Task: structure prediction
Amino acid sequence: MQVAVESAATIPTPVMHDRADGPVRTCLATGQEQSPDDMIRFVVAPDGRIVPDLARKLPGRGMWVTATRAAVEQAIARKAFARGARRAVVVDADLPERLEGLLRDRALEALALARRAGAAVNGFAKVEERLRSQRAGLVVCAEEARTSDSRAKLVGRGGAVVDFIDAASLGRVFGRDDATYISVAAGPLAGRVAMEIGRWAVYRGAAGKAVGV
Result:
């Protein structure tokens, strides 16, 4: 199902400039200026469809929306993409939901990269050993463990602790049926995994500060 959005008569020019503290973009939904790191870039595909550009590499005039599902839904409701594109565009009805899946996949891809590099291990005992040796930069817990005593034992022991998705989905990263506790060694890969999981959580409106930082 698709929603056709007609272009509006009055079209403001999005603000794209640098401040002393870095570049800013104007959110199509709210009109607020923010860092691009807190936003999602969109472009218009050749067929007129609005396409999210999470990697910020697609050609074309970028349009920016605060990186939350609520903001994306607001932009659609207000026909803001058509105004930003200065033309009639097509917005897929499932765009907000699909974006959540894309952000989830990026986080899983970052975790898979850490595994291939030998930086990620799974299993409570291995995670504990990493924490004891102060080599854990990040601990990722499956959603099933959110209220468990085992998870509580990992908090405050030197690595940030974040909650992500179900154990079965995390297990596929390691070629296993499930993975409830994962540790990523301190370093750039831990930072990347934390960032991608954080973007997914913020988009869903379920973000909280990583525990144990």
